[in-house]
Amino acid sequence: MAAAAPDDIGTVYVTPAYLARMEMDARRLSVMPHRPHHSILSGRHASRLRGRGLNFEEIRAYVPGDDLRHLDWKASSRVGHALVRSYTEERDRPALFVVDQRISMFYGTRRAMKSVVAAEIAALGAWMSFQMGDRAGLVVFDDSHVHSVRPHRSRSRVQAILGTLARCNQALRADSPVRTNPAQLDAALRSALHLATHDYLVCVISDFLGADEATMQLMRELATHNDVVAAMVFDPSARAIPDRGKIVVTEGELQLELDFDRKTVREPLGNMFDTRLAQTVDVLQRCGVPLLAVDTEQPTLLQVARLLGHFAQRRS
Question: Which domain holds residue 59?
């Protein structure tokens, strides 16, 4: 595989080094002042949405008022007085990032390709999880394979996530013979179901090409025991077709020049993009999971910060 040109890094492709540098950006997100109440991470560790998890901390002397269910009878009989097992609330919140790197993501008319933006979101999320002492894992998929990195709490695991992301990203080529496989989205979600067993934060990052009723059911299954967020990556051209100019689009060997100066080209494409975007949004909203829209024009860091509520205006 040929190395990406320096000018392409961060726009057309990502590298492990590029994604590693996002650690500092993630730290800026993590250490900012309190998250507003509408942030998707608000109340993260103290949340009782899915019940309380407990970690054993120590065995100590019984104090009147302690829960009798925590008495350690064996230890108490050995020392001759009552001892209880002390617990602290479980603070681990494993995160799993499901990242789309299909050929449909290899598209962008502004700052970066959709595939790059998806990788940036996942990298920021993995670094934030690591900095908060949580486990991070990955499911990344292209049009023929689904790759996974099991969640773990270590810097080396984050680096493995970044390396896997970069390899899949750099395999994308405009002249690739690969054809878009809509079914891979559901295949990736099924892999996520095997990894995200309970109380995970699952972030699905995709353009959601091929999302249908089966996708909606898989998302609902994921959300049964986990908190699921859908980050839909889109290019501004999906909402506003240019009034003029020409672009060349390709799907492997087939290339087509689109002349936006011609109304007969511009209007049908605009209607098609509007319909597809509306259908995708409808499917995701019916899943009952939060939908975050991230475009390829603005810096990813600023968009993620805004979506988390860091830069949001306080409601009057």
Answer: 55-88
